[in-house]
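Posted in: Protein Modeling Q&A

I'm a second-year student putting together a small comparison for a lab meeting, and my supervisor asked me to include a predicted structure for Transgelin. I've never done this before, so apologies if this is the wrong subforum. The sequence is pasted below exactly as I got it from our records. If anyone can share the structure token output, I'd also love a short note on what stands out.
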Amino acid sequence: MATKGVGMANKGPSFGLSRAVQDKIDSKYDPELEQILVEWISRQCGSGVGKPEAGKMGFQAWLKDGCVLSELINSLFPGEKPVKKIQSSSMAFKQMEQISQFLNAAEKYGVTKTDMFQTVDLWEAKDLAAVQRTLSALGSLAVTKDEGTYNGDPNWFFKKSQENKRDFSEDQLKAGKNVIGLQMGTNKGASQEGMSYGRARQIL
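Accepted answer (user: helix_wrangler)
Welcome! Here is the predicted structure, written out as tokens:
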């Protein structure tokens, strides 16, 4: 059964994707961001995870079995670790299962669905730029949360502007409602009269 799964996976990368589309996806991959992510993951997880060969295929091979990713997400949770079992395997379905566990834990941590890569994006190297996007979003969240678990340069990732939501409160919201009320009042008069005059002119 394992060989059947691997055979199907080998067909995967070219299926349904033209070379031009694949090239466009590949062009979004950022080699500079790769260096930052590798440095962060290495610091975050410790020397045990090693470092990949430079380049996107080295990056993909490093993360492909899901173990490094699982170590990364576990290191960001201050209390109970979300991925209970991290086990390296050469079997395709086990590797994909480990990646899925990382993705579930990343969503629990706060990464939005729009920032999340699909398992095949990494495992079949379909969209490694999407993998970078997920890891960047994870880094940004870790810096923003500031729970003492982030291990790296805070300038590597943008701080999410969670605090800004609190600014739009009380006085500003009241002021906003007043502006909307005024606009609705003036728009009503203008649109009703203006449109009827407009129609009258066209008929004549």
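A couple of things worth pointing out for your meeting: The first helix runs from residue 2 to 11. The mean pLDDT is 80.
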